[in-house]
Amino acid sequence: MQDGSRHDEPRLGAGLRRPRLLSVEKNMTTGKHLDRRSVAGPTVTRADVRDAALTLFALRGFHGTSLKQVAQAVELRTPSLYNHIDSKADLLQDIVLTTLVEVNDEFEQALAFDEDPRGQLERATHIYVLHHAVHRREALVVNQDTQHLPEPFLSEAQALRRRHERRFRQVIAEGVDAGQFEVPSAKLASFAVREMCVSVARWFDAAGPLSATDVADTYTLHALRLVGAR
User: Fold this and answer.
1) May I ask the CATH architecture of the domain 9-83?
2) Is this prediction's pTM over 0.85?
3) Each residue's pLDDT tens digit, 123-147
4) 6 by DSSP, 3-state: which?
5) Domain ranges, ordered by start, for the chain
6) Which CATH superfamily includes the segment(s) 88-226?
C-alpha cells in the first residue's frame, strides 16, 4: 500500500461494505439518535466500533470522521465509546498497523512457495491485488490516513511500508540478475507494479462484472509484461 490522495466520497463508496451506516445516515439527517442503553439490542463490542470506524474513515477520511459519527453508527452515545477505545487515533493505529503487518505476512508467504523470481513476482502481485480488492476499506484508510498516525506508530507504519517496497524491488532485481526480467530500473518497476495493485481499492466493486480473482489474474499478467518477463 502506498501513499494516495483523498477522493470524493461517491467514488470511495462504490462497493464498500456499509454495516448499519445507511440507517445511521438517515438518523444523522433527521437528528434522531439511538442509544443501546435505552433499547434492546446486541451488545456492542470493540470489533463493532472498529468496523464502523473503518467504513467511515474509508468514506470520509480520518479527519472527516468524528467520534460522534462512529458512536451513531453503532447506536451508542459518544462517551460510551470509551468503554471500547482510548481515542479516535487508537482506532486508526489498530487499522493501519494490523493491515500493514498482514500485507507483509502475505507477501512473505507468497515468496515461500517459489524460489524462482518470476514465480515469486506472480504470486506476490496476485496476493497484493486480491488484498486490495477484498479489503478495500483497509487499503483506502492506509493510503489516505497513515500520515495522521501519532509517533511512534507513524514510524512503525512507515517502516512496514518500506520493508514491503524493498522486498518487492528485491524480487524484480533478482529476476533481472537471473536473466528472467529485462527492465532498466528495478526500483521504478517495483513502484509501477505496486501502484497498479494499490489502485484496485479505488475502483473495484464486488458486484461488478469482474471477480477479485479475475482482476488479480489480469494484473499479474500486466506485472510480468511491465518487467519484461521472458
Assistant:
1) Orthogonal Bundle (1.10)
2) no
3) 999 999 999 999 999 999 999 999 9
4) coil
5) 9-83, 88-226
6) Tetracycline Repressor, domain 2 (1.10.357.10)
